[in-house]
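User: Before I run my own analysis I want an independent prediction to cross-check against. Here's the chain; please return only the structure tokens and, at the end, one sentence I can use as a sanity check.
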Amino acid sequence: MVQLTPPVRAVRRRWLTLLACLLLCPLLGGCVDYDLGIRFDSQTQGSLSQTLHLNDPLLTLNETGADELFQQFTVSAKALSGKVSKLDENTLQIVLPFHNGAQLVERFNAFYGGDKGGVHLPGLPGISARLGLRQNNYIFALRNHLTYDLQVERADQPGDSTLSDMSWLNLDFHLTTPWGLTAAAGPVAISVTDHTVTWHLAANQPQHIEATFWVPSPIGIGAGAIALICLLGYYIKYRGTAV
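Assistant: Structure tokens:
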């Protein structure tokens, strides 16, 4: 009988626990909860937040893979000047600040794109996403048209119903803006307020979201206020002269 060396046994044990997790996750109602949020506070300030929660079964069965995933998130976030917080042993939160729309798109796509981008847990399909943002300046405010595309990689074995079912993965995306937020395309939103829209995304098929919203322009508003004061002063001066 062939004796397995300790490293080989460790690798074998790791993949066995991954397989066990895949088999049990559909019965346990999901192993990975992933929440992505984009918040616009103003034209020059906002944040991209990501919260990853690994349920207890995944941590118990695949502690090594969970540690690797947390480490992957941490390294990617710090490379983009992000703030990383471990809310508890099961939950990691990342906040990436941005100062304009172009920086938001650059940081989002850098996190999810490129050779090291995306979310990858050993033994499970990867998650990749892409963000687009078109802005039109109307002097006092910017009209924004945001697009978000999500793709979950298929399993290597197409016939594996455990992976293709994707019941182990819960995905939520929410967008918070100052003014006039409207969901233009995508799945039906599960929550809609004046400033925030939340979508629950189906991981078993590609997802596409479009939304439009307005962000006030401090520069435009300031310039308009100065122009109004000048006009008012001119009116008062020459009205007094005419009288």
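Sanity check: Residues 1-6, 10-29, 156-163 have pLDDT under 50 and may be disordered.
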